[in-house]
Design goal:
By secondary structure, this protein is an alpha/beta fold. The protein is built from 14 helices and 19 strands. The chain starts with 11 loop residues before the first strand and ends in a 6-residue tail after the last helix.
């Protein structure tokens, strides 16, 4: 679309990439039955009933951008006005005004996150970008990433003839052995596994490109070809609330998946007992039209000497090594190689090489001084150095 040179009298709303991504998801039908911004009546009904057109939906879908310029524009709009949507000084879409109405930002935060406490990272992020006036109406946006995702999934389904299409929402921050076990299990039970790799709009954790490379390293080298597809999933604010699993399920279904796999220890699952039966958030919302499969937590048992489900291992928790992502991340961020029972050596090597480039002086000299080799003089990368180092750690003859 046209760039920054626009008529000064044109009506404009300035939105960030996170809002643009969310608008594009909805417009593409990926959160259907929601396909447009809700008006005041619809918003109030959804926030009250948690339903939209007979389908579960956790909160109203609104656009209420913050900022002095936006507030001034919103206060002067009337029905039928055409508004340019601007992101990073570029026109990315248009909106035909149906209505504008005031909202309570604090109430809005409660609907999304269940809290307005600014210590919650999602609350803090949303508060910084949430205004007091919402706008409704039909709109168009351009966002190539969404179109590319739809195309790739359709092409893979057509290529493989897949009927049972399982999906996973994965942060892989970092990818660990428990993730691998769940992925293998899903691949074995499906014609195609679609992994939606979360791509947040924050800088917390490993960069997306590092996580993507680690995941594809595992897939390309240790799984059957044409059974797994990795799709970038921009983790916007609507997927950060306590009802995120409902939206995850809607997204997966609308992308063409027949099943969503989630762990029983997922915080958003909300497991509880109802008349002596274990239930979850999905028992309240049975009209999502996608199968939900919950998977037990996996741990490493030092007696079984392998990964096991907590539901099938007979040994106590004191024998279990848990796959706690934050703790594994602390090891990696400190430059330490995680034990191979936690993270596959190939994954550890490419993550550490990406996080600490040019870490070692005289890398080639260190390599030839410490590592066994073919006797030929070859240039070694940092990733190869880490792989050889991990192999030395795994040598057991002197232990």
């Amino acid at each position: 679309m046209d760039s920054s040179k626009r008529n000064k009298d044109s009506k404009q709303l300035y939105i960030d990439t996170e809002a643009l991504s969310t608008l594009a998801l909805v417009k593409a039908g990926l959160i259907a039955p929601v396909t447009k911004l809700m008006n005041k009546t619809e918003a109030m009904e959804v926030d009250k009933t948690k339903m939209y057109k007979g389908v579960p939906f956790p909160f109203a879908f609104l656009l209420a951008p913050k900022g002095t310029r936006n507030k001034r524009t919103l206060e002067n709009l009337t029905k039928g006005d055409v508004v340019d949507l601007i992101t990073e000084d570029t026109k990315v879409g248009e909106l035909i005004v149906e209505d504008t109405f005031r909202i309570d930002p604090i109430q809005r935060l409660h609907h999304i996150y269940g809290t307005a406490d600014e210590s919650h990272p999602g609350v803090k992020n949303t508060m910084a970008r949430l205004g007091e006036i919402a706008i409704s109406g039909e709109y168009t946006v351009q966002y190539p990433l969404i179109d590319d995702n739809i195309k790739r999934i359709k092409q893979m389904i057509n290529k493989t003839g897949a009927k049972t299409i399982t999906s996973m929402m994965l942060a892989a921050n970092p990818l660990n052995r428990a993730h691998e076990r769940i992925i293998r299990q899903a691949v074995g039970e499906s014609d195609l596994l679609v992994i939606f790799l979360r791509k947040p709009f924050t800088k917390k954790g490993l960069r997306y490109d590092i996580r993507h490379k680690a995941l594809t390293t595992f897939i390309d080298n240790f799984l059957p070809r044409n059974k797994v597809l990795v799709i970038p999933f921009e983790n916007t604010y609507i997927f950060a609330g306590y009802n995120e699993l409902i939206l995850d399920a809607l997204l997966a279904k609308n992308y063409g998946c027949t099943q969503l796999v989630i762990g029983k220890n997922h915080g958003g699952l909300g497991l509880y007992y109802d008349q002596n039966r274990l239930a979850s958030i999905f028992d309240k919302f049975k009209d999502l039209d996608i199968r939900i499969k919950t998977i037990d937590e996996f741990v490493y048992c030092d007696t079984c000497k392998t990964l096991v489900s907590t539901q099938t291992c007979p040994h106590g928790q004191h024998h279990h090594v848990h796959y706690h992502s934050e703790s594994i991340m602390k090891l990696i961020q400190s430059g330490l190689v995680p034990p191979s029972i936690l993270v596959r050596k190939e994954v550890s090597a490419n993550i550490l090489a990406a996080l600490f480039p040019n870490r070692f002086e005289n890398l080639q000299e260190m390599h030839y001084s410490l590592m066994p080799g073919s006797g030929l003089i070859e240039q070694q990368s940092e990733e190869q150095f880490y792989l050889k180092l991990i192999e030395l750690y795994q040598t057991s003859s002197l232990t």
